[in-house]
Write a structure and sequence with these properties.
This protein is α/β, with parallel strands linked by helices and 232 residues long. The protein has one domain: 2-enoyl-CoA Hydratase, Chain A, domain 1 (Alpha-Beta Complex). It has 10 helices and 10 strands. The strands form 2 sheets. It has a 6-stranded mixed beta sheet, with helices on both faces. Helix 1 packs parallel to helix 3 and helix 5 packs antiparallel against helix 10. It starts with a strand and ends in a 9-residue tail after the last helix.
């Protein structure tokens, strides 16, 4: 399960299991209900005691492979509520009272790719892994909140290509498209993420959350809009 790891001047939110390069129970860091519960609780801890910038990352092949499709197919009647939980996670990350950096260590697909965009700064490892929105290829639409998130964080040409074609972006292409801020060799990824986050440490506190909420108000409103039945 995910966990917080204080390292130097920052705290890492590790999306996978402690002590395992690839989690045996959730190897792709999909947004399972228990995974969402754990991440939500860990972010509440950060909110309750905002002392250090936060780096969101993982180890192994995946940053996150997004929605739990097994749950979606097994309980389609629960889909609107499930997607609302995902939207709530995005809103929480977007408004944390600490500077945030995503360090994409491997594949970031769908809802996982969007999670990375919820942080203030985004890094991606070189040589291995893709950032991609596969929804068009999977005949799945984007929710209102997800579409607004992508329009907010990406320019129109990039959002159009990424959402309409399901292109897989390697790190250098993701930088060129403005999806991520930097491409970093994997051996330096954690250190570079910590360096960027720590440089913003002076802004930690409740005021930063207020600034984020004001700046992202239209996006937060769409993320808070309940998902209607039959969205997929």
């Amino acid at each position: 399960m995910p966990y917080l790891n204080e390292t130097g001047e920052v705290v890492e939110l590790q999306l996978g299991a402690r002590g395992e390069e690839i989690s045996e129970s959730n190897p792709e860091n999909r947004f399972r209900l228990d995974w969402l519960d754990e991440v939500d609780g860990l972010l509440d801890d950060v909110i309750a005691n905002p002392t250090h910038p936060l780096v969101i990352t993982a180890t192994g092949k995946f940053f996150s492979n997004g929605l739990d499709t097994d749950h979606i197919f097994a309980a389609p009647d629960q889909l609107p509520g499930y997607l609302d939980r995902v939207h709530a996670l995005y809103a929480k990350v977007l408004t944390l009272p600490v500077p945030t950096v995503s360090a994409i260590n491997g594949h970031a697909f769908g809802a996982g790719a969007m999670l990375a965009l919820c942080t203030d700064h985004v890094l991606m490892r070189t040589e291995r892994g893709f950032w991609s929105l596969p929804e068009a290829a999977l005949s799945m639409p984007f929710t209102r909140g997800m579409a607004t998130l992508l329009r907010t964080r990406l320019d129109d040409r990039t959002a159009t290509e990424a959402m309409y074609t399901s292109r897989r972006y390697a790190a250098d292409a993701a930088v060129d498209a403005g999806i991520v801020d930097e491409a970093v060799e994997v051996g330096q990824l954690a250190a570079r993420a910590a360096e960027i986050a720590a440089a913003r440490a002076s802004t930690v506190g409740r005021n930063l959350a207020l600034i984020k909420r004001g700046f992202r108000a239209p996006l937060l409103e769409d993320l808070a809009t309940p998902t209607p039945p039959g969205v997929f």
